[in-house]
Amino acid sequence: MARRSKTDPHERCCIRPCFGQVGLLDWHATRPTRSGRDGPDMRKFAFILSLLLLLPIGAAVALPFLVPVGAIVAEVERQVEAATGRALTIKGRVDLSYFPSIAVTADQVHFAGIRQGEDLLAVEQLAVRLRLMPLLRGKAEVEKFVLTAPVIDLTVDKQGKPNWDVSLAAAPAPADHASPGFMSDLSLAEVEIVDGRMRYTDARTGMVREATDVDVTLSLPDLDGPLTLEAALLLNGTPIALDLGIEPVRPLLSGGKAGMALRVAGAGTGLDVKGQVERQGEAPLSLSGDLSLTVTSLADLIKVATGAVPSDLPVDDLTMTGKLSGTPSRLALAGLSAKAGDLTANGNLSVKLDGLRPALGGSLSLPKLELDRYLPAPAAADPAAPAPEVGPAGWSKERIDLSAMRSADLDMTLQLAGLLVKGVEVGATTLTLKLTDGRLNAGLADTALFGGTIGGKLTLDAGRQTNALAVLAHAKGVQAEPLLTRFAGFDKLSGATDANIDIRASGTNQQELVGSLNGGGNVLFLNGAVKGVNLAQIVRSAIGHGSAEPPQTDFAEMGGTFTLTDGIAATEDFHLLAPLLRVTGKGNVNLPSKRVDMRLTPKLVGSLEGQGTTRIDVDGITVPVRVRGSFDNLSWTPDLSSSVKAALKDPKKAQDALEKLKTKDGAKGLLKGLLGKKQ
Fold this sequence. Notes:
By secondary structure, the protein is α+β, with helices and mostly antiparallel strands. It has a domain at 2-31 and 42-64. 20% of the residues lie in helices and 47% in strands. It contains 13 helices and 35 strands. The strands form three sheets. The protein has a 30-stranded mixed β-sheet that branches. Strands 18-20-21 form a three-stranded mixed β-sheet, with no helix packed on it. Strands 32-33 form a two-stranded antiparallel sheet. A hairpin with a 5-residue loop joins β32 (607-609) and β33. α1 crosses α3 (40-66) and α11 (640-649) packs across α12 (651-659). The longest helix has 27 residues, at 40-66. The termini are far apart. Mean pLDDT is 78; it is low at 1-42, 168-183, 607-618 and 661-679.
């Protein structure tokens, strides 16, 4: 023992006291020599074996004396920041122990997010304990891993950069998961998250989602056994429970498949997925399996998903089944079969999760829909509620809120077997919907409606400051009377409609949209009638040959082209072709003020029956008619002053018209009409 008195002071104060506690080194050094089996070789072997057994224990006991805890913490913080570019800060107490288990308890652990932002991760307390001896054998047995009150703050800044995007400064080479080396086995006993909170904020859209009271328990006896995870949380104040099972786990480390079962319940919703999880090489995990979804309260589900409280939903329940496949960035559902109330749908759906917002896509086939059953009923008037503000002509000034269109993207194709809207049958059609960053492009294939077809495209842009609308549509052979009666409450016009329109508008309410209408088009009505006025009768009355006829102007063709400027539709080529009448006209329809100002010029052709059996040749006689007034109170009056002006400009033409009147009464009536005199 005397020869050890000259050892290094560091060894005397740190290493030797630790090993001396067991006394085995001194025992082997002073044990007497014996012959035979206990000769020098056996003594050497026993001594080496003792060293091998005691080395890890002694080192673990001695390490706290060799390296101060503060130095270990500082080195860990330095290495993390060097690798990620983010600061790891342990602000509270740190306790370390190495025997019989490696244990670390740290308070107030923070991992930085983006510059001048909230921490990506803040943990009130982190506690880890691993068994030492299994670790030396290549098996990690985690006795305890508990995060107490962690706060995870996920943020996307205005430039679209997420705070969890950590670029490693020097990423290590990918591990060979197939090689049976270090960490060939893993066991997780007590792994928990207690009273956690997670928040997601998108500075570009202002969207905020938060989960609170997050409690998670995870268990993994070994890599060949089942991994189970149970979680409970509050999402937007609604309790959500999650259960996940995966078995076995080992194939997912080296490339392979494992069975998987997932159950999510809450907000009136139950989701079950049974299938498998797969990993191929360095690719992210993927899953596939059978999905079953049952929703007993769509209102509760929408509230949890969007934060908004919906009202007057046409249905409140939903069931859905299909084949699910997915990766962390995309989910797809094939062979979908869904039912909401009495509405059924079949097809395929997918959702992308790696963009600025969720992007839903796919195609669905739907049977004939009685749409009236799913449209909200008109709200009952509330005497106590203030009436919505309206403009002078009754257009609403209430803001049209389309902000929900910016919460997700959409690329869908709907195959409809038909629609029933307000008692109107619409034929089978295909509807395409593409929504990107609040801009909707909708396309309607040619669709049977009221004896004809309609089709077109619509663009609706839910802008940050104002909304924008564009319509490009066409109609062929559509009967005007039932269409206008059903959807506009106007029953004064009949005939088959051929039309093409291209219009645009912008604004935040009805009044602004109507006042900004621009564009144009052409409209033609065939073989119909204008009810409420008989233009031929007006002309007959002007020339003294009025007769009792129904207030209706029949026509073979009526229409023209129009231009829209700031909500005012103007035409210069209106025309109407009737059996005894030709009408041309021009004027405008002021949509913002809901008023009409048109000048029509009817021209009689052929002859009219006078009183008795007298026939009057009236070919070429014209008597202009002025159409003026509000939409609900139009007046139709002869514009006799225009007739006088025309006669003064061309006396010969007026004389020719008079000569065509073969009766004295006819000529007298026409003169009196032109000069505005009473009989």
